[in-house]
Design a protein that fits this description.
The protein is α+β, with helices and mostly antiparallel strands. It has one domain: Beta Barrel (OB fold (Dihydrolipoamide Acetyltransferase, E2P)), CATH 2.40.50.140. The chain has one helix at residues 2-21; strands at residues 25-38, 42-49, 54-60, 78-88, 91-102. Strands 1-2-3-5-4 form a five-stranded mixed beta barrel. The protein is elongated, with a radius of gyration of 18 Å. It starts with a helix and ends with a strand.
């Protein structure tokens, strides 16, 4: 009986851990850069999508795979990025792992 309780508790714990890990996903964001805030090893770009959603995109040399993949956005650029999306309070964030395009 003790083993059954332990196994049940383990299954519940694993289900919780997996469900929390799945809330972060690799996704794409495309939109217009509204503003730029410089940081220590990169910057955060405020991107407004066609659906009027706002994402705060953290772009750093390390996260995009090195200086050869790093690009500096300017206000007004139309950009497409992929990365890890999460929500903090009422804000959408994306840690950019790939810059797909900048126009």
């Amino acid at each position: 009986m003790k083993n059954l309780k332990k196994i049940g508790a383990l299954i519940i714990l694993m289900t919780f851990v997996i469900s929390c890990a799945c809330t972060k996903g690799k996704n794409a964001v495309t939109g217009k850069v509204e503003s730029i805030e410089n940081g220590k090893d990169g910057y955060t770009a405020k991107i407004n999508t066609d659906k009027n959603e706002v994402y705060f995109a953290t772009v750093s040399i390390v996260n995009v795979g090195g200086p050869e993949n790093y690009k500096r956005f300017k206000e007004g650029d139309e950009v497409s990025v992929t990365g890890e999306i999460w929500k903090a309070e009422n804000e959408n964030h994306i840690k950019v792992t790939k810059i797909v395009s900048v126009k």
